[in-house]
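During the no-cost extension, the postdoctoral fellow (Dr. R.K.) reprocessed legacy sequence entries with the updated structure-token encoder. One reprocessed record is reproduced below for audit purposes.
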Amino acid sequence: MQQEKIIINGLVLAGGKSSRMGRDKASIQWYGKEQQYYVADLLQSLCNEVFISHRKGQEAVTNNNYKILVDTYSGIGQYGAILSAFQFYPNAAWLVVACDLPLLDKKTLEYLLANRNPDTIATTFQSPYDGLPEPLITIWEPKSYEILLSYLSNGYTCPRKVLIKTNAAHILQPPDKDALMNVNTPEDFTKAEQLIYQKQQLHNGR
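Re-encoded structure tokens follow.
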């Protein structure tokens, strides 16, 4: 009997408080729409269903054209958002993407999906900035749910540490290192603006 194919859902992490940035990173408009919606649109053609993860009390700040998944784990940030997604749909794999990656493109996501290894707990990229696995551009397989819960019971709330300690993820080199640049501070914002402008000029042949 052929095993049922595991579907892949998309999860955009947009529930952070953006304290270092000083304004909501999810609502920044790099390409004419709020970044949380831009990333959700990138995932639409690649995933079965796409959800935007918000923290409790944030539900009202949204566009009704997008599905919201409210975090049921308070106070543990992105780790709780991933667990909440699995709690909602434990039999799906989740392509988890942070909203603060303005240079992330569809080509990078397609590369991740094309090189997915469902026999591992996750498929991810090695960060070009620190050499560690990047948990917030990652396909988390259903089997990772119990592992994440187990690590939580032992006091871990960092998805990157789970990837490192289990040593059970499929880690790829990113085709474009700039795609993994996240923007956490006003200084990061300025650098990202410059890179986006350069890439647009290059694309336009100028």
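Helices lie at 35-44, 77-88, 106-114, 144-153, 159-166, 186-203. DSSP finds six helices and seven strands in the chain. The remaining legacy entries will be reprocessed before the final report is submitted.
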